[in-house]
């Protein structure tokens, strides 16, 4: 029999893997050749400077009544936002400078919010109302400006013309029609940013999902619920309605649903309104009101928007509610504003409510609105609004930006840097 050998000074390693000592010296080898240097890394970026443009249309009604307001006193537009800053148009019926003796009207655009060294391009246009297109235009756009864009140093800085138009010529021109002037103003705020390289560019078409869903309604296929409105029947799809409206979802799929329900009768809504409501829920857009009603008048359009606002609130369709609110803001009129104001109060449309209150509170509108049937309804349904209306009447004529903030350094036909801009006919 053989005798097993043991290592001296330690236990046997038979049957166990061998690990070399960590400190064991590596076998000698020849040095490897040096690696070639890595190619230099190349990067690129682009600085882009452009203008963010916006326009405001200012109608000056009752020009003959504004004359005599006094030299240096102005009529101001509502403020508007371009490039993150507030702006306002200032029209001086008797001119801005006493040295001109009220012989000229003055026109300026002013920075109406806080800002430092705001660089911008401007365009002021007096619209030719004869339809001949002979507008009076003063512009920075499309011209080579030696000193670059104009810089406004602080809130209240102005650009414009003390001698914009000789008053005697203006009053016999085609710019004045029905005692109104139309002024268009464009502001281009200069902004810069740096862009990295564009790795890829794949054009992606706009989503057409609403087209596919909308065709479900027009095809009438696979409908599983019918609505009766004013004795007119409207087939629809439960799953689409439930996806769009939490109210319909609770009614059609909630714990209190009727499994055998095939027809729902809608009360307090006219058939054209429900048809427009369904159109929006499938197509995600307002229908063509003329195609829907066979009528093409502002009054019909406003009436439909009023009904849709109430319906949208009833079925928790926030986007439709906002679209209806926007439409009503655009179409405020003497004979409909009282009803719209009542709706705005009842359905918590704060912006629409403000627009209506301002419209009613103006002296030229107040008496006429108070003689409408809608105003009688407003008094009965929302008496608390009368107090708010009185507050707006008291504030008419106030302006947010005091005249003392505005610079008097702008010269006629140019700016504080001495640059001049020629009119374009």
From TrEMBL:
<dbReference type="Pfam" id="PF22486">
    <property type="entry name" value="MATH_2"/>
</dbReference>
<feature type="domain" description="BTB">
    <location>
        <begin position="223"/>
        <end position="290"/>
    </location>
</feature>
<dbReference type="Pfam" id="PF00651">
    <property type="entry name" value="BTB"/>
</dbReference>
<dbReference type="GO" id="GO:0016567">
    <property type="term" value="P:protein ubiquitination"/>
</dbReference>
<feature type="compositionally biased region" description="Pro residues">
    <location>
        <begin position="31"/>
        <end position="40"/>
    </location>
</feature>
<dbReference type="InterPro" id="IPR008974">
    <property type="entry name" value="TRAF-like"/>
</dbReference>
<dbReference type="InterPro" id="IPR056423">
    <property type="entry name" value="BACK_BPM_SPOP"/>
</dbReference>
<comment type="function">
    <text>May act as a substrate-specific adapter of an E3 ubiquitin-protein ligase complex (CUL3-RBX1-BTB) which mediates the ubiquitination and subsequent proteasomal degradation of target proteins.</text>
</comment>
<feature type="region of interest" description="Disordered">
    <location>
        <begin position="1"/>
        <end position="45"/>
    </location>
</feature>
<comment type="pathway">
    <text>Protein modification; protein ubiquitination.</text>
</comment>
<dbReference type="InterPro" id="IPR045005">
    <property type="entry name" value="BPM1-6"/>
</dbReference>
<comment type="similarity">
    <text>Belongs to the Tdpoz family.</text>
</comment>
<dbReference type="InterPro" id="IPR002083">
    <property type="entry name" value="MATH/TRAF_dom"/>
</dbReference>
<dbReference type="InterPro" id="IPR034090">
    <property type="entry name" value="BPM_C"/>
</dbReference>
<dbReference type="InterPro" id="IPR000210">
    <property type="entry name" value="BTB/POZ_dom"/>
</dbReference>
<dbReference type="GO" id="GO:0071472">
    <property type="term" value="P:cellular response to salt stress"/>
</dbReference>
<dbReference type="InterPro" id="IPR011333">
    <property type="entry name" value="SKP1/BTB/POZ_sf"/>
</dbReference>
<feature type="domain" description="MATH">
    <location>
        <begin position="53"/>
        <end position="187"/>
    </location>
</feature>
<dbReference type="Pfam" id="PF24570">
    <property type="entry name" value="BACK_BPM_SPOP"/>
</dbReference>
<protein>
    <recommendedName>
        <fullName>BTB domain-containing protein</fullName>
    </recommendedName>
</protein>
């Amino acid at each position: 029999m053989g005798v097993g050998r043991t290592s001296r000074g330690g236990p046997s390693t038979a049957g166990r893997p061998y690990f070399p000592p960590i400190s064991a010296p590596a076998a000698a080898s020849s040095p490897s050749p040096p690696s070639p240097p890595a190619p230099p890394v190349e990067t690129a970026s682009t600085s882009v400077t452009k203008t963010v443009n916006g326009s405001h249309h200012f109608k000056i009604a009752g020009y003959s009544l504004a004359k005599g307001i006094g030299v240096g006193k102005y009529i101001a537009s509502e403020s508007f936002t371009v490039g993150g800053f507030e702006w306002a148009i200032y029209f001086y019926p008797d001119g801005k400078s006493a040295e001109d003796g009220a012989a000229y009207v003055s026109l300026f655009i002013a920075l109406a919010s806080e800002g430092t060294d705001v660089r911008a391009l401007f365009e002021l246009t007096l619209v030719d109302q004869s339809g001949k297109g002979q507008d009076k235009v003063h512009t920075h756009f499309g011209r080579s400006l030696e000193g670059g864009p104009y810089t406004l140093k602080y809130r209240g800085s102005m650009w414009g013309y003390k001698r914009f138009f000789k008053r005697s010529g203006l009053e016999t021109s085609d710019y004045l029609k029905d005692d109104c002037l139309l002024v268009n103003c464009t502001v281009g705020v200069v902004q810069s940013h740096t862009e990295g390289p564009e790795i890829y560019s794949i054009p992606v078409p706009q989503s057409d999902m609403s087209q596919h869903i909308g065709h479900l309604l027009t095809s009438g296929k696979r409908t599983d619920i019918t609505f009766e409105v004013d004795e007119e029947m409207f087939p629809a799809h439960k799953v689409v309605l439930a996806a769009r409206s939490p109210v319909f979802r609770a009614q059609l799929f909630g714990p209190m649903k009727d499994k055998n329900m095939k027809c729902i009768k809608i009360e307090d809504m006219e058939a054209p309104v429900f048809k427009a409501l369904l159109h929006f829920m499938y197509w995600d857009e307002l229908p063509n009101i003329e195609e829907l009603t066979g009528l093409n008048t502002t009054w019909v359009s406003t009436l439909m928007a009023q009904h849709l606002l109430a319906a949208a609130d009833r079925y928790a369709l926030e986007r439709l509610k906002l679209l209806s609110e926007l439409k009503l803001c655009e179409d405020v009129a003497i004979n409909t504003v009282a009803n719209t104001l009542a709706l705005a109060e009842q359905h918590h449309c704060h912006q629409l409510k403000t627009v209506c209150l301002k419209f009613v509170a103006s002296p030229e509108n107040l008496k006429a609105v108070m003689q409408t049937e809608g105003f009688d309804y407003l008094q009965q349904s929302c008496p608390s609004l009368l107090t708010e209306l009185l507050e707006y009447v008291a504030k008419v004529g106030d302006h947010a930006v005091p005249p003392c903030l505005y610079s008097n350094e702008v010269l006629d036909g140019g700016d504080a840097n001495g640059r001049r801009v020629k009119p374009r006919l």
